[in-house]
Amino acid sequence: DSGVTQTPKHLITATGQRVTLRCSPRSGDLSVYWYQQSLDQGLQFLIQYYNGEERAKGNILERFSAQQFPDLHSELNLSSLELGDSALYFCASSVIGQGNGYTFGSGTRLTVV
Amino acid sequence: AQTVTQSQPEMSVQEAETVTLSCTYDTSESDYYLFWYKQPPSRQMILVIRQEAYKQQNATENRFSVNFQKAAKSFSLKISDSQLGDAAMYFCAYRGSARQLTFGSGTQLTVLP
Fold first, then answer.
1. N or C: which end of chain A has fewer CB within 10 A?
2. Contact state of B50 with A101 under an 8 Å Cβ cutoff
3. Please, are residues B74 and B24 in contact by the beta-carbon 8 Å criterion?
């Protein structure tokens, strides 16, 4: 157990639907990062939150949004889902400091049918 | 923007032998960190080793070591005494002032018994 908890582990939904992925960071970590891993795109950075505030945005679609709550857990909302959104979505957390690697959750496998 | 390149999509090694995975990166920053992550079939992302750019000494973690060539912007991972459990996808990653990790496309390592 890495200390980063992601739920659900698997999600199957239809095109056009909306889903919410949840992440609880490791205790003491204020930063949360979301990544998308698809077969043909590798690991793509989506968005970062630090202590409730958005810090950086990557290749995140407008149909996707995220937030970090006062208890530091984060949610990634994916709407108007398309077949191409099928991927493994990772959440990671870290303590402040450039040299610290991330601790990753086990991911949420999203399948859009 | 920083880029990370892993030019070996697949590698194989005989059990107990040594293998080296290559990684190059492009950056204009002088202060940054480099990481190797392992992703076994379970899909969990596991930090293997990290290197501070300002340190000339190569990092070592048990059977894993790196060859960091800052001027050449090269960061290879050497796995000694390879074990069956080392079979996984290995990702090289860069972390600079932007704080988020930028990943390479990965190298799939097969360990042959």
1. N
2. yes
3. yes
Q: What is the pLDDT of residue A99?
A: 65
HSE at residue A89, side-chain half, CA atoms within 13 A, is 32
What is the three-class DSSP state of A85? helix
Query: Chain B closest CA to A81's CA: distance in Å?
Result: 23
d(C-alpha A81, C-alpha A4), whole Å: 25
* Tens-binned pLDDT, residue by residue, of chain B (113 aa): 789 999 999 999 999 999 999 999 999 998 899 999 999 999 999 999 999 999 889 999 999 999 999 999 999 999 999 999 999 999 999 998 887 899 999 999 999 99
Read off φ and ψ for residue A99, nearest 5 degrees. -80, -5
The per-residue pLDDT for range A16-63, each reduced to its tens digit, is 999 999 999 999 899 999 999 997 668 999 999 999 999 999 989 999
Pairing, β A10-13 against β A108-112: parallel
Cα B49 to Cα A8, A108, B76, distances in angstroms = 29, 25, 11
Total residues found in chain A within this entry: 113
- Determine whether the interchain pair B100/A106 forms a contact, defined as Cβ–Cβ distance below 8 Å: no
Give the distance from residue A43's alpha carbon to the nearest chain B alpha carbon, in angstroms.
6
Tell me how far apart the terminal alpha carbons of chain A are, to the nearest angstrom. 30
Q: Which two tokens stand for residue B55?
A: 């340190």
Which residues in B lie closer than 8 A to residue A55 (C-beta atoms)?
Answer: 99
